[in-house]
Amino acid sequence: MNKKGENAGNQTMVVYFLFLVFIIAGGIALGVSIFYGEGIDLRANGASIINRQIQLCLSEKDIDWKNGTFTDECELNKEIMQDDPLKFIIKICSIECEKGKVLFQSGSNFEACDLKGKNKYYPQCTSGFVSHEEMKYEIITGIGQRVKESGK
Prior knowledge:
Blueprint: H1 8-36, H2 43-60, H3 70-73, H4 78-83, E1 88-94, E2 102-106, E3 124-132, E4 135-143
Antiparallel strand pairs: 1-2, 1-4, 3-4
């Protein structure tokens, strides 16, 4: 005897099977697109983090700029900055960098910070101001190294 609902269980399993196939295919497509897709550019975020760390340090500590101990007092890795000056650029000035005295500088290509939208390979920079007692500082930080090149 053939009952009408004998194959109903098999038919509902096909729906679940197709659902699983679509989930797996979507996961593979997403993984391939992330691996071979456009690189993630975190340079602006990194520059903001370094800028904020320097702002906190300058607002809390008295820095003796003549001794050159700024990197030690603010817990910055001096070797990384000296290894590749294009990777990290840091400039600290009294009052404003256009008018004031440069107190600390690592790297030299600060003009590229103004050309951020012109070329995607220029450093991504962040500037900020901080005051400590009677002194006002401008801090310009930038990162010039991209995290991942796309499709390579």
